[in-house]
Structures are given as structure tokens and as C-alpha cells.
Design goal:
It is built from 8 helices and 9 strands. With about 290 residues, it is of the alpha+beta class. The chain has 2 domains: about 120 residues; about 150 residues, no CATH class. Strand 8 and strand 9 form a beta hairpin. The relative contact order is 0.17.
């Protein structure tokens, strides 16, 4: 009976952790995956290799200021990476004439000659955070695809995808799968770990139950004691099986209702290489896809 009480206490603690997990992680796991996991994760998704993903993070109490200065981190990155003269850095917005997303062209002086880098904005994310000492501010994250210097890039096709609760529920048929899909990795690991822990407990208890029951049946000394131990192990096995069911059902429910993080899908580029032609207005440059 004491073992059952201890196990019940542990079960209550585990249930409390699982039930509090959505509240504890809600603030973090709704952030897009590229914000939480960084540009290294995105760069592993690339199909074309003549560009790289860069994540730029800025913060300020004034959201309008952050949006007005949204291109500053990109220009700073190009200037610092290539040691460009700050006075020589220029940025043009290249307008697509074929329905493709717009691309930025950054030109700069590099060792006496002019160099160029191309960049495409892939996604952005704005959040509001409270800090210590009653301070607050906006967090502004941007994801760019940035070409190598003097390379005409072949950008992949990017698509921002929101989490699909139905797909998350189907993934949760495997314990924790829906949580991993939604980006709540700690919660997914807790659910999967609970299933493994309680499953192992059920197996051990079943094995001990069989041993004690066989001792009772075979008339080993103190038969009543062996049978009592067998019943206790049976009860503990049932408790473990019940906890497995609770953790599994919680995983399904959580996958159906919790908010997940969006992601950026990277697919092969549509069409062929990029070419440039004069804009119809006669000013600037238009970006044209050749199919």
C-alpha cells in the first residue's frame, strides 16, 4: 500500500507538470521555428546553395521605429561582412515583372571596385515582451535570404506555413509527435518520456506479479504473503497502465487545441535563372524570371 501511495504521488506530480506545460511554454513555442531555432536550421533546408539565410533581431519600445529601420540590420551585415565603405552602400528595391517576390540589391565599394549582394525578405515576426523593472518593448525578427557577393542568386521558393492541428493530432498517434511538430519540444519529450517510464513500470510489475503468483501456486513457504505481493504488483501494473493512458490522451488533446509555431517551407526554385532588364518606367531595374 505504501508503494501505491508513493506511485500515486509521483503520478500527481507528473500530471501537474504535464498540465502546466501548455501555460509555461505558450509564450515561447508560438514563436516561428526560424526564430526559436535560428538560421542554422534554415540553412540546412536550402536546395540552392548560392545564398544563405540570415536572421536579424532588433528591439525597441517604439514599433514604428523598428519598422522604419527594418533594412538597417541587413545593410549593417553586408557592410561588416565585406568591409565596405559605409558611404558607398546603396540599396535598390528590384520590382518583379513576373509575379515573383521583390529582391533588394545592395551595391558597395569593395577595394576600389563596385560589388553587389542580393537579398530577399522571407518572413518577419513581431512580439511584445515585458522586462524587469517595469520595462517593456517590441521584439522584431526578420528572416532574409542573402546571396554571396557578386553572385546572381537562384533563390528557392519560400512559403510560410501555419501549424495544422489535424496534422498535429495525427502525429500524436505516436506519443509526443504532435508536440514535436508544433515546436513544443520539451512538452513532447515529457509526454514521450512518461509513456516510456510508465510502460517500463508496467512491464516490471507484471513480471514480479508472475513470479509471486507462481511462488504462491507452487506452495512456496508463506503462500499468503506471496499472493499478497502478487496482488500489489497487479495493482501497481494497473496504475502504470492508467498513467500511460492519461499521458497519451493528454498528448492527443494538447495537439488538437494548443497553438503551435509557424514554419518556413523551402522548395526547389520555380523557373530558371534570374535576369535583369530596364524597368518600363525607364528608372531602376526590374527583376525578371526566365522560364
Amino acid at each position: 500500500m505504501k508503494k501505491l501511495l508513493k506511485l500515486a504521488c509521483l503520478a500527481a506530480m507528473a500530471a501537474t507538470c504535464l498540465l502546466s506545460a501548455p501555460e509555461a511554454s505558450a509564450r515561447s513555442h508560438v514563436k516561428p521555428q526560424w526564430v526559436r531555432r535560428g538560421e542554422q536550421m534554415m540553412n540546412r533546408k536550402r536546395i540552392s546553395k548560392n545564398y544563405e539565410f540570415k536572421v536579424f533581431h532588433t528591439s525597441d519600445p517604439d514599433l514604428g521605429k523598428l519598422q522604419e529601420e527594418r533594412l538597417d540590420p541587413l545593410l549593417t551585415y553586408v557592410r561588416e561582412r565585406y568591409g565596405a565603405n559605409p558611404l558607398s552602400v546603396r540599396l535598390d528595391s528590384l520590382v518583379s515583372t513576373a509575379g515573383a517576390p521583390s529582391v533588394y540589391r545592395i551595391t558597395f565599394a569593395d577595394g576600389g571596385s563596385e560589388s553587389v549582394v542580393y537579398a530577399r525578405k522571407v518572413a518577419e515576426y513581431v512580439s511584445f515582451d515585458d522586462y524587469v523593472d517595469n520595462e517593456y518593448g517590441f521584439e522584431y525578427d526578420q528572416l532574409y535570404a542573402v546571396s554571396e557577393k557578386n553572385v546572381l542568386p537562384t533563390f528557392d521558393t519560400f512559403e510560410v506555413q501555419e501549424c495544422d492541428n489535424l496534422k498535429a493530432t495525427l502525429y500524436s498517434l505516436f506519443p509526443g509527435g504532435g508536440q514535436f511538430y508544433k515546436g513544443a519540444n520539451l512538452k513532447g519529450a515529457a509526454i514521450l518520456g512518461s509513456e516510456i517510464l510508465f510502460g517500463a513500470g508496467a512491464i516490471v510489475c507484471q513480471h514480479k506479479k508472475n513470479v509471486y503468483h507462481n511462488n504462491a501456486v507452487n506452495g512456496v513457504f508463506n503462500v499468503d504473503s506471496w499472493e499478497s505481493k502478487s496482488i500489489s504488483c497487479r495493482d501497481m501494473r494497473n496504475v502504470n497502465l492508467g498513467l500511460m493512458a492519461v499521458a497519451y490522451l493528454f498528448g492527443l488533446y494538447d495537439a488538437m487545441v494548443s497553438e503551435g509555431s509557424s514554419r518556413v517551407a523551402v522548395r526547389a526554385p520555380k523557373g530558371g535563372e534570374l535576369t535583369f532588364s530596364p524597368a518600363s518606367t525607364g528608372a531602376g531595374v526590374a527583376l525578371v524570371y526566365r522560364f
